[in-house]
Amino acid sequence: MDIRHASHPDDVKRYDTEALRKHFLIENLFEAGHIHMTYTHYDRLVIGGAVPTEQPLALEAPQTLKTEYFFERREAGFVNLGGPAVITVDGEKHSLARLDALYVGKGTKEVLLASENAAEPAKLYFCSANAHHQLPASKMAIDKANPNHLGSLETSNERTIYQFIHEGGLQSCQLMLGITILKPGSIWNTMPAHLHDRRMEAYLYFDLNADARVFHMMGQAEETRHIVVANEQGVISPPWSIHSGAGTSNYSFIWAMAGENYTFKDMDIVQMNTLK
Ligand SMILES: O=C(O)C(=O)C[C@H](O)C(=O)CO
Ligand SMILES: [Zn+2]
User: Fold this and answer.
1) How far, in Å, is the centroid of ligand 2 from the Cα of 77?
2) Ligand 1 pocket test: which of 166, 190, 260 has the largest number of ligand atoms within 8 Å of its C-beta?
3) Which residues line ligand 1 (CB under 6 A)?
4) Region for 227 from its dihedrals, namely left if φ exceeds 0, alpha if ψ lies in -120 to 50, beta otherwise
5) What is the tens place of the pLDDT at every residue in 65-124?
6) ipTM of this predicted complex?
7) Is residue 131 left, alpha or beta, with left meaning phi > 0 and alpha meaning psi from -120 to 50?
8) Which of 47, 52, 44, 25 is nearest to 36 (CA)?
9) Which sites bind Zn(2+) (predicted)?
10) pLDDT, tens only, 208-249
11) The whole model's pTM is what?
């Protein structure tokens, strides 16, 4: 388990490229036959990737959690980025096509992650937050997710935000999760930038070609920094940080949030003349 501690914004001002990457970038989430997890102390979110091949992979509690099983005090959202997946939740099978999502709630004893066909492995991204209430496992296909069309080609940010786990969708205790897909020719996400000091956020950028990159913007509005992100890499966004990106091409990303409230629209928009 890769552990990331919380950083104070005054310290982050002095981070060089290496330190920014060490604390906020997650480079290797997907490896055939393995589950990789990063534990951030921001709202104790666990960010993971699993690539099951011939054998299913059991999602077990790492030592860090000091619990008997992963979901003892947690909930999670899964999104499949690969070939057809089957997630078995306490004996109940859920089939996930590419970009389908599944919520798994507190109290679940056994979660098995499998590929329908090892030659076309599933690629499961997941985010897990602390939970204090039991809610049923529930799947949502991307065509059932609430689509929000935002931006325009003129401002290079035409995109659709699909909300899966949120107030009006799959129910959770505190986790919110969705996918944003940029239209060809659009490269900016979340600009104008916003803040929500009440909630941290994690991004996973995907659908980038091997030599494409996203310049992920972070930091306080008056003191921005960037991290260069490649395909299927994640970024931890502290609650005090803007989170925005510009790509060398269009791309998609999964966003997930945990924290104080449960309101997707809680965004303090940063005025352009504040950004530095
Ligand atoms: O494209 C966007 O804009 C987003 O996807 C924004 C995120 O959903 C977000 O930051 C929610 O707080
Ligand atoms: Zn946000």
Assistant:
1) 17
2) 190
3) 159, 161, 180, 189-190, 196, 201, 243, 255, 267
4) beta
5) 999 999 999 999 999 999 999 999 999 999 999 999 999 999 999 999 999 999 999 999
6) 0.98
7) beta
8) 47
9) 194, 196, 201, 243
10) 999 999 999 999 999 999 999 999 999 999 999 999 999 999
11) 0.98
